[in-house]
């Protein structure tokens, strides 16, 4: 059984936009609406999963937690039965608790963000309920297409890693697709994914949009009236669309992605059926040893304003708590349908190599999504730590962490996912484990 629902989440007033610290102004209207969409699936035994796709930079931990608590109270949906994925568009609104080190906000900005975040929470809980209420018999099938505009963005130079387009870098260009039909074969819904930053539109763009994934969804729904599309952002933390920085390019990337989906919809696919089994837990990711009080105090004189503000926040935490955070709880989730279809969801901005590794280690058809259940920062692969660069080091300032993680986080996450996948459970998730 399947149910689908959609709600518009476009802000009704100008707001600060998410994703780029370089922006200097609030939003100026919208290129197209932003959406939250939900797909509810249920099996004959009564097990369920609800997948939510949202045109946001990410789901901060507190917001995801409140949505999950309300979904359990109102719909008896256990935490492992809810997957929240953000498209990571950089032309959406700032949500309370997200990338707090990246923006300089006025009290009015903060008030608008708080009010919007509350409305957003209500909208997402509502769309979950409508998807569950609309469940009806369905057929599901899976296939994979290909889109070529994703390019690794970590360029090695004699002075280290710099941002750009690295044609020889790691990338995954597959487009996983779930097709949801009525028993008679009429298309009801499409879930599709891509492992690439949703950033064709760069900091100078001040109109709300879903970026390339939003244009792809619009194109698919135009070609299939009455169908609902959900986009799941993949593990593309080290990948950008190329070329970028023009509106027509975002539209072109959207059309290319939509065509890849269409090829799957009209081609050969394999059925997805059987019991739904779900598992969710938290993997504790250790930080490297944090800077000392003396180091932080010295950074108060740094020429970089973001470094100064970060040092101020860390010193305030030292004063309040006596120490800085030693680890972060990364959500990991496994959804299995039948014996050979597995959807893995990992929190944070996850590097491509996680998906490539999991597809080798897990059997059957495997789909790996990042940006799920919490967007707490970059999750580099072990290889990337040796190289350094923005994703490993500098980004942690904007995500308000004391410093980088340790290289071992790749193995910590993969081990936890493999353990969850051995026996997805019906009982509530346990405490965080390394």
Structure in words:
There is one protein chain. Strand 3, helix 1 (61-75) and strand 4 (82-86) form a beta-alpha-beta unit. Helix 3 crosses helix 4 (247-266) and helix 5 packs antiparallel against helix 6. The chain has 10 helices and 18 strands. It has helices spanning 61-75, 107-133, 211-223, 247-266, 293-299, 305-321, 352-361, 382-387, 395-398, 409-422, and strands at 2-8, 35-42, 48-54, 82-86, 139-146, 150-157, 160-166, 174-181, 187-194, 228-233, 239-241, 270-271, 276-286, 327-337, 341-346, 349-350, 365-369, 378-379. The chain is 31% helix and 26% strand. It has a 5-stranded mixed beta sheet. A 4-stranded mixed beta sheet has the order 1-2-3-4, with helices on one face. The protein has a 4-stranded mixed beta sheet with strand order 13-14-15-17, covered by helices on one side. It starts with a strand and ends in a 12-residue tail after the last helix. By secondary structure, the protein is of the alpha+beta class.
Largest sheet: 5 strands, mixed
Question: Can you count the beta strands?
Answer: 18
Proportion of beta-strand residues: 25-35%
Helix/strand/pairing class, anyone? alpha+beta
Helix content: 25-40%
Give the overall silhouette: globular
- Report the order of strands and helices: EEEHEHEEEEEHEEHEEHHEEEHEEHHH
What's the mean pLDDT score? 95
Counting DSSP H or I runs of 4 or more residues, the number of helices is 10
How are the strands ordered across the major sheet? 10-9-8-5-12
Radius of gyration: 21 Å
Distance between the termini: 36 Å
Stretches with pLDDT under 50, minimum 5 residues: 426-434
């Amino acid at each position: 059984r399947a149910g689908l629902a959609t709600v518009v989440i476009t802000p009704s007033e100008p707001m600060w936009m998410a994703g780029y610290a370089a922006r200097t102004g609030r939003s100026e209207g919208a290129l197209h609406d932003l959406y939250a969409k939900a797909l509810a699936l249920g099996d004959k035994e009564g097990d369920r999963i609800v997948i939510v796709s949202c045109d946001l930079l990410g789901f901060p931990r507190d917001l995801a937690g409140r949505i999950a608590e309300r979904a359990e109270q109102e719909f008896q949906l256990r935490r492992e039965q809810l997957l929240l994925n953000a498209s990571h568009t950089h032309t959406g609104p700032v949500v309370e608790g997200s990338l707090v080190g990246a923006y300089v906000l006025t009290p009015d900005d903060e008030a608008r963000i708080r009010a919007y975040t509350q409305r957003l929470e209500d909208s997402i809980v509502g769309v979950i309920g409508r998807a569950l209420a609309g469940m009806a018999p369905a057929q599901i099938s899976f296939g994979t297409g290909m889109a070529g505009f994703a390019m690794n963005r970590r360029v090695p130079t004699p002075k280290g890693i710099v941002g750009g387009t690295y044609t020889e870098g790691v990338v995954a260009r597959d487009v996983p697709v779930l097709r949801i039909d009525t028993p008679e074969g009429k298309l009801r819904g499409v879930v599709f994914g891509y492992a690439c930053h949703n950033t064709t539109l760069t900091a100078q763009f001040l109109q709300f949009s879903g970026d390339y994934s939003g244009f792809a969804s619009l194109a698919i729904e135009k070609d299939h009236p009455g169908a609902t599309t959900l986009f799941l952002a993949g593990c593309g933390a080290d990948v950008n669309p190329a070329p970028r920085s023009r509106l027509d390019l975002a539209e072109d990337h959207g059309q290319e992605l939509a065509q890849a989906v269409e090829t799957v919809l009209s081609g050969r696919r394999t059925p997805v059926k059987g019991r739904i089994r779900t598992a969710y837990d938290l993997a504790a990711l250790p930080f490297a040893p944090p800077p000392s009080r003396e180091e932080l105090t010295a950074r108060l004189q740094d020429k970089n304003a973001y470094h100064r503000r970060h040092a101020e926040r860390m010193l305030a935490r030292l004063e309040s708590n006596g120490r800085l955070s030693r680890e972060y709880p990364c959500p990991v989730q496994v959804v299995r349908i039948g014996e050979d279809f597995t959807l893995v969801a990992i929190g944070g901005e996850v590097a491509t190599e996680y998906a490539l590794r999991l597809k080798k280690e897990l059997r059957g058809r495997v789909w790996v999504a990042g940006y799920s259940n919490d967007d707490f920062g970059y999750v580099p692969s072990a290889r990337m730590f040796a190289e350094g660069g923005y994703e490993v080091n500098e980004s942690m300032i904007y995500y308000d962490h004391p410093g980088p993680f340790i290289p071992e986080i790749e193995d910590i996450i993969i081990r936890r996912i493999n353990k969850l996948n051995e026996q997805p459970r019906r009982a509530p998730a346990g405490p965080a484990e390394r």
